[in-house]
Amino acid sequence: MNQLTGVISDRGSKYAVSGGPVADRAEIEEFLKALKRDKKFAKATHNTWAALMSDGTPLKSDDGESGAGMVILRMLERANIRDHVIVVTRWYGGKHLGGDRFRHVQDCVRAYLDRFGD
Question: Which residue has the higher pLDDT, 117 or 30?
Answer without folding.
Answer: 30
